[in-house]
Amino acid sequence: MKTSHNNRPVLEAVDLTKRYEDGVLALDHVNFAIPAGELFAMLGGNGAGKTTTVNLFLNLLEPTEGEARVNGVAAHLEPLKAKSQMAFVSENVMLYPNFTAIQNLDFFAKLSGHDEYGTRYYRDVLLRVGLAEESHNKRLKGFSKGMRQKCGIAIAILKNAPAILLDEPTAGLDPKAGHDFIQLLDSLRREGKAILMSTHDIFRAREVADTIAIMDCGRIIMQKRAAELQGQDLVQIYMRYMAGRTESSPIAAPVES
Ligand SMILES: Nc1ncnc2c1ncn2[C@@H]1O[C@H](COP(=O)(O)OP(=O)(O)OP(=O)(O)O)[C@@H](O)[C@H]1O
Ligand SMILES: [Mg+2]
After folding, report:
1. Options 1.20.900.10, 3.30.428.10, 3.40.50.300, 1.10.287.130; which CATH number does 89-162+173-188 get?
2. CA of 247 relative to ligand 1 center, distance in Å
3. Residue 145 burial by CB count (10 A; 0-12/13-18/19+): exposed, middle or buried?
4. Ligand nearest to the CA of 46
5. Across 140-155, average pLDDT
6. What is the pLDDT of residue 194?
7. Considering every ligand atom, which ligand is closest to the CA of 23?
8. What is the pLDDT of residue 6?
């Protein structure tokens, strides 16, 4: 039950459109809204537009049209204000290989304006995300993908932002690590975070998502609440949508001169 949260969107895509410089229309008027306490999962084949969507929220890209909003703030218009309200979890971006787990947490917590935390709290958060105590003082460069992913989510927890974005967070994790990671996302969702996640893992999406969208060629071709999918085979639904698609590649158009 998530009755304590209002339904005002924390993350919102409004006619979000991206045409890359080479003419590829990667996103075509995409609309969705994610309120506090909900997880929105984007499924879709390679090149569907999932990473482009995430990157527009992070202001790593400029939209051609429309807006990616965080608590009403358009990411490309007020990037700093928008970024302060988002945590992006990635195993590669940002972590320092020569720093230990604790040092990485301390560095990034301070970077996001949290000077109040100490080692004890860092240890608690690392334990919460499932990183064993003996690894807390080891350098990141010796960590496996799953261990780095845990540090990434620990940093997101420390930032305590209302929105969390993840691009294929469970890719390459072993089954137990993938399961634990999804449980962690579930607990963050219950704490009231709005979560946007892209994934190729239909089963995990189904496990944790409040809303599931299927993207294809830059458009959302299906969007359903988890309750609507109850008792239905999501794999079959996905395959049906993919079989019925009209285009096999994104719409490339010549760049107007
Ligand atoms: N920097 C870029 N310049 C030009 N085209 C790009 C660029 N990045 C992505 N694209 C194109 O935009 C479309 C959407 O790509 P995107 O990376 O968003 O897909 P995706 O859904 O994340 O795919 P995947 O599942 O493979 O990660 C693809 O056709 C891709 O080739
Ligand atoms: Mg991608």
Report:
1. 3.40.50.300
2. 15
3. middle
4. 1
5. 92
6. 98
7. 1
8. 64
Q: Whose CA is nearest to atom 26 of ligand 1?
A: 46
pLDDT digits (tens, 9 = 90+) for 62-94: 999 999 999 999 999 999 999 999 999 977 667
Q: Which CATH number fits domain 5-35+47-85+210-257: 3.30.70.2860, 3.30.457.10, 2.60.40.3880, 3.40.50.300?
A: 3.40.50.300
User: Which residues contact ligand 1 via a Cβ below 6 A?
Assistant: 20, 22, 24, 26, 44, 46-52, 250
Gap between the Cα atoms of 166 and 170, Å rounded: 9
Take atom 4 of ligand 1 and give the residue whose Cα is closest: 20
Token pair 């709005």 is found at 194
- Give every CB contact of residue 112 below 8 A, 6+ residues apart in sequence: 84, 158, 159, 161
pLDDT digits (tens, 9 = 90+) for 235-256: 999 999 888 765 544 444 444 4
Hey, which of 16, 25, 46 would you mutate to test ligand 1's pocket, going by the most ligand atoms within 8 Å of its Cβ? 46
